Structure formats: structure tokens, C-alpha cells
Amino acid sequence: MPRQVQIKRVYDPPQRGDGYRVLIDRLWPRGVKKEELEHDAWIKDLAPSPGLRKWFGHKVEHWDRFRDGYQAELRAPEQQARMRDLIQAAGRKKITLLYAAKDDKHNHALILADELNRLY
């Protein structure tokens, strides 16, 4: 049975069952002090490329093309290696991906979680 990767907004309080908490935004989230965020890793290289992120601009009408572009980026060999390294670092713990976007239905964490679950 594949291990579940969950996603949470970085502003939500941590919970006991979060497991290995990973910030996956390329930029540090606004209003969050680095020393106060409970996280195990910050893997900004797994975030969408700057060009793709800026093009998307959190516009829902760009979602389908953004999803396709980000999936293509994640399926590149170097990104596959980064995802496998993340899975290995988490060990037996659940992985919680932390993101800052306000939209919980159109953000890169959803896509990355699917790709990580595919690798388990």
C-alpha cells in the first residue's frame, strides 16, 4: 500500500501525525520566521521553475497548462533523484509538503504530492 503524502499550508499549525515536514516553495513564505517554522527540510529545487511559477501567477485559467508543465519538470531525471532523496530522508515517516499559496485546489503541492505517491 503506498504511503500517503499530505499537503498543508505553511501557516497551519503542525500536528503530531505530520511526520517529515518539508517546505517546497522556492521563496520563503511571507510572515514566517525561519526559526519558528517547524520543518525538517526546505527543498526549494523541487518547486516549479521560476519561469513557470511566474507565468502561472496563481491564475486558475492557467492551471491545466501549469500542471502539465510542472509534471514535465518533475519527471526530469534530476527531479526524480531529488524526490527519491526526499523519500529516503523521510524514512518510514509520512511526508507533509508545506506550501504558502492561498488556493488549496490550484497549487504546486498537489502536483508534487501526486508525483511522490507515484514513486512510492
From TrEMBL:
It comes from the Bacteria. It holds the Pfam family DUF488-N3i. This is DUF488 family protein.
